[in-house]
Design goal:
alpha+beta; D-Maltodextrin-Binding Protein, domain 2; Dipeptide-binding Protein, domain 1; Dipeptide-binding Protein, domain 3; four-stranded antiparallel sheet; 15 helices; 21% strand; globular
Length: 519
């Protein structure tokens, strides 16, 4: 188990203990704020410090409480955020960022280049082994090893201008600064301890935490976060001033979610929502790519690459999309996600006919959670593979973090999982599979062909990028451990008093841009 995955498990255990302590001596019940926009979230909150966050919901909270130098829209196109402009040298080795004037943290502390340098130093200290992009910055190795007390590649020109020097060209470096873990925190944690900062962070984003409480709704225990608008010169286009986020780890029935203004829904709830006169439905870009992971560690059948390739080619991805998602998803024939440069919309894996089935039939377990339709995907795969003599025995884990604990701590059986790119870069995405500490690197590799190819990326020449990405995809197919199935977005219902839900990259809702009618 990698250090990064040990950290995740430790975070889960520590946070669950923290909340258990809170439940032993609960505060007074938190009363609803009738003027606030009420949001429902069906996840735990583990970490609110950006570079320690792990889940997609924590990434959503990061976008509300913090901001990055660069933003990326739902197409993956960069736009100015805390950095109002930038200059890239012709050799792509020097980046100069000009920081916006008039930006301050909720405590009144003005944001300067010193906060950005402090943030990058913290990210290097905490995540250097998990974020190889950091190694491109000059002086990172000496800083991490304690030979230097600062990163020499970070040159402060003045309070609002920063120059970053790279050891070698990295064409996706600009997009890298849109990743959630580069969100800017105030230097020295605004004078707070890390524990206190994680409970109520002082962020650089469009909202601040007013207070946190607990509430019981129809027998369910909710953690409630009250957020107030924090005015920023570049993220003030929306009218939402007060947001109440209601967090419950227990799945709710649709009728229990109807009291909220914004809430996630499943595909089978869309028709009922569409018939509701006060609700509308929105989908994010289908950027979450879902895999069947053919774990070879325990099962001798899966230790044979030919058998894994048989399954890889036997799956009819179009059938999953039509039968499970009513064509509200995209078949995934490549390992690379949709909307990342190098994805080929014309590439296809032709489904393999059953032919002579394995005899006697092969019994294989399959582990999944039932979020975002994955339970029905598991059943569809079971039906598809049965004529091939492969019988899937499905186990549905109710709790999302129990599921992650099982695949991280045990990692013995095949499982279904969805992966969200951190930012629009093939290099960044593939690193999750081949690099130590990568989120999808569950199995030690005996050869380094894939890793060596990934580390060639990205090239300044787009044709070279496409050629290498195609070869990486071919090697993934040959290895046949990670079987791409489909790409999907998140689906949300929202009250019609909200004009529209606008999404950023990574299926993140831009709450700062919400237009709300309060009549």
């Amino acid at each position: 188990m990698t250090a990064g995955k040990r950290l995740l498990v430790a975070s889960i255990l520590v946070t669950n203990l923290f909340w258990a302590c809170k439940r032993d001596s609960p505060p007074a019940p938190d009363l609803p704020d009738l003027s606030a926009l009420r949001v429902f979230a069906e996840q735990h909150v583990l970490k609110l410090i950006p570079y320690q966050s792990m889940s997609s919901f924590e990434m959503q909270l990061n976008d509300m409480l913090f901001d990055t130098l660069i933003g990326v829209d739902h197409f993956g196109v960069p736009f100015p955020s805390l950095a109002e402009k930038w200059h890239i040298s012709p050799d792509h080795k020097t980046y100069t960022f000009s920081i916006r004037r008039g930006v301050s943290f909720p405590n009144g502390q003005p944001l300067t280049v010193h906060d950005i340098v402090y943030t990058l130093e913290r990210v290097v200290r905490f995540k250097l082994d998990q974020i190889p992009e950091l190694h491109f910055i000059s002086g990172v190795e000496d800083f991490a090893a304690g030979r230097e007390n600062r990163i020499t590649g970070l040159r402060i020109i003045n309070n609002l201008m920063l120059e970053i020097h790279l050891e070698k060209a990295f064409p996706s470096f600009l997009e890298f600064f849109s990743a959630y873990y580069t969100s800017i925190v105030p230097r020295n944690m605004a004078g707070m301890s890390e524990v206190d900062f994680n409970k109520k962070p002082v962020g650089s984003g469009p909202f601040r935490i007013e207070h946190v409480g607990r509430r019981e709704i129809e027998g369910h225990d909710f953690q409630v976060m009250h957020l107030k608008r924090h005015q920023l010169p570049h993220r003030n286009e929306g009218t939402a001033q007060d947001i109440e986020i209601n967090i419950c780890a227990t799945p709710l029935a649709l009728k229990e979610k109807l009291s909220f203004d914004i809430f996630p829904i499943s595909r089978h709830e869309i028709d009922e929502i569409a018939a509701n006169p006060v609700l509308r439905v929105a989908n994010s870009t289908p950027i979450i790519i879902n895999f069947l992971v053919l774990n070879p560690k325990k099962h001798s059948f899966l230790q044979n690459a030919e058998n894994r390739r048989h399954i890889y080619q036997a799956v009819n991805r179009e059938l999953i999309v039509s039968e499970v998602f009513a064509n509200h998803a995209f078949p995934a024939h490549m390992v690379i996600p949709l909307a990342i440069f190098g994805w080929n919309p014309d590439y296809r894996i032709k489904p393999k006919s059953a032919g002579a089935a394995f005899s006697p039939p092969i019994q294989l377990p399959l582990l999944t959670v039932d979020t975002m339709g994955r339970g029905r995907v598991a059943e569809n795969l079971r039906d598809q593979l049965s004529p091939h003599g492969i019988q899937l025995e499905i186990t549905i884990v109710k709790d999302l973090f129990d599921f992650f604990n099982r695949i991280i701590l045990e990692t013995n059986d095949p499982f279904l999982i969805g992966v969200l790119p951190e930012y629009p870069s093939a290099f960044s995405f593939f690193l999750q599979f081949v690099e130590k500490g990568g989120f999808m690197n569950f199995f030690p590799r005996t050869e380094n062909d894939l890793r060596e190819l990934v580390h060639l990326l990205p090239f300044l020449d787009y044709r070279e990028n496409i050629a290498v990405i195609s070869e990486i995809n071919r090697l993934f197919e040959t290895e046949a451990i990670y079987v791409p199935l489909y790409s999907i977005g998140s689906t949300w219902a929202f009250n019609k008093r909200i004009s529209a839900l606008l999404f950023k990259y990574n299926a993140i809702i831009d709450y700062s841009a919400l237009e709300v009618k309060n009549d």
